[in-house]
Write a structure and sequence with these properties.
By secondary structure, the chain is an alpha/beta fold. 22% of the residues lie in helices and 23% in strands. It has helices at residues 42-55, 116-121, 164-171, 234-247, 271-279, 285-303, 319-326, 328-331, 337-348, 359-369, and strands spanning 8-16, 20-21, 27-28, 58-64, 89-93, 96-99, 124-127, 133-137, 139-140, 146-150, 176-182, 188-194, 201-203, 206-208, 215-216, 219-223, 251-254, 308-311, 378-380, 388-389, 392-393, 421-423, 430-432, 435-437, 453-454, 458-464, 469-474. Strands 5-6-7-10-8-23-24-22 form an eight-stranded mixed beta sheet. It has a six-stranded mixed beta sheet with strand order 19-18-17-16-26-27.
Length: 483
């Protein structure tokens, strides 16, 4: 998958148009005037050119409409560039292609009504838009999902801000691009580049500032895909450790750290499966905690004391208080009677106001402490806790929505952190505006995914010190090409 001879790299972005041709044949902005908006973001374009040369990549700039569909002529500084792409299709491999899908740049969600095109063309699709969107499309029986990807733009915004749609679009305009590493005819790596208004952007731990020599940039936080220790995927875990080594983040966020396979209430009446799991030794709550303890110990030592690890209170953590409250450890699951009684006793000792108690977070911590002293850099967050970095809420798992409802996709989670968040839970990598959802570190073909559509994928997100976020999916443990 990582043979250099097969590798081909693309940097794909869009450019809004500045002018239309009037009745006299002149190129002018629609509505009058001589100077068009949608000038290139000079530093961003220069930075992409530096990155292009570093990666030996092809830069593709795809034109999109200006303030309306009549504006279809690019700014004069772009008109003679050889990397302007005007074709209708570019097949990158059998599973990814660029298509001339026309979506008004004012649209809030460029993927609305477009998911069926994945089936029509038989692959994931990239198309140009002024916003950056990763939208998953489930496929049958845990095959790798298809995606709709949109690019972001290399130009300054060009909208009619006198109306609601134009004003909103200008405020939500995204400077950025996609980087695609085509490994072979089947596999590819893809990651987003998100630039600041000044054109600076980060990629793979380096910051690009116009034509200047790129410099190292620190990683504020690395958010890992849901861990689910015990049902984890070894390739995904390997990629996680590689990313930690590469980025050396100051913080690591863990979601669904505790899997709960030993006490899963969804399987409590499935006698056949429970009997088989018992024979495999997977119904011991003590054993599950022991395995998780040693993984947290390993992770804490690997990162070092200067990296703080945060365990987010998640829905699988809530399996534990549900199990303790059920009393199953007293009569049915007698092999868990010792730890069940101990955790029940610990929960009874809590002298806090009930509104301040998160039984899931507390009991997980107590279960782990039975196997040794917890590393000093491992922190347990409660449901009510906040952890914000560069405006992004990082303490929310994503299983809870507004006013007690269930959490949904990225559009539904726009309420979290005022629209700026990096969450987990759904196991599907997604980007919508400033809402990011990481994937999973678990196996992709667990029993309850069989027979239906799944969009699960391994993916992590890195929050850089400049406040930009980059999504990094991994396929079979491969998250970047070897160069």
């Amino acid at each position: 998958m990582d043979k250099k001879s097969d590798l081909k790299t693309y940097i794909i972005t869009s450019a809004q148009a500045s002018y239309h041709e009037n009745k006299d044949g002149d190129s002018v902005p629609y509505g009058g005037g001589k100077v068009g908006k949608a000038r290139p973001n000079k530093k961003l374009l220069e930075g992409l050119e530096i990155l292009r040369d570093e990666l030996d990549a092809e830069l593709k700039i795809i034109p999109i409409a200006g303030k309306n569909t009549l504006e279809n002529i690019l700014h004069q500084s772009l008109e003679n560039r050889e990397d302007i792409f005007t074709g209708s299709v570019l097949r990158l491999n059998q599973n990814l292609q660029v298509r001339d899908i026309v979506v008004p740049p004012q649209n809030v969600d460029p993927t609305t009504g477009k998911r069926e095109l994945v089936g029509k063309y038989g692959s994931s699709l990239i198309f140009a838009h002024s916003k950056q969107r990763f939208f998953p499309v489930p496929v049958f029986n845990s095959d790798l999902p298809r995606y709709l990807f949109t690019t972001g733009a290399v130009t300054h915004p060009n909208f009619n801000t006198a109306n609601h749609r134009g004003d909103t679009a200008e405020r939500n305009h995204v400077y950025g691009a996609l980087i695609v590493e085509v490994i072979d005819d089947e596999f590819f790596n893809i990651r987003n580049v998100r630039a600041l208004k000044n054109g600076r952007f980060a990629d793979m731990g380096e910051v690009y500032d116009g034509s200047k020599t790129p410099k190292k940039i620190g990683a504020d936080t690395l958010v890992l895909g849901d861990l689910h220790w015990g049902d984890h995927d070894e390739n995904a875990i390997t990629a996680n450790y590689e990313m930690i080594e590469h980025f050396k983040p100051k913080r690591i966020i863990l979601h669904d750290t505790f899997n709960g396979h030993s006490i899963n209430h969804h399987e409590k009446d499935n006698l056949l499966r429970k009997s088989r799991e018992f024979q495999r030794g997977r119904l011991s709550l003590e054993g599950e905690f022991e395995d998780l303890y040693w993984e947290l110990e390993r992770l804490a030592k690997f990162t070092g004391k200067n990296t703080q690890i945060y365990v987010v209170s998640s829905n699988h953590d809530a399996f534990l208080p549900r199990y303790i409250n059920s009393g199953s450890w007293m009569d049915r699951d007698i092999w868990n009677s010792d730890i069940g009684a101990a955790l029940y006793s610990k929960g009874m000792e809590l002298g806090l106001d009930e509104k301040e108690i998160d039984d899931a977070s507390f009991l997980i911590k107590q279960g782990l402490k039975r196997h040794g002293k917890l590393p000093s850099n491992v922190n347990f967050l409660k449901l009510k806790d906040n952890l914000k970095r560069h405006g992004y809420q990082l303490a929310t798992h994503g299983h809870k929505g507004g006013h007690g409802s269930r959490g949904g996709g990225a559009k539904s989670r726009g309420i979290t952190g005022g629209g700026k968040s990096i969450t987990g839970h759904s196991h599907t990598m997604e980007i919508f505006g400033d809402t990011y959802i990481v994937g999973t570190s678990s196996q992709l073909d667990l029993p309850y995914t069989a027979g239906g559509g799944s969009a699960w994928i391994a993916a992590n997100a890195v929050l850089y010190n400049n406040g930009t976020v980059q999504m990094l999916p991994s396929i079979n443990g491969k998250w970047k090409a070897k160069r």
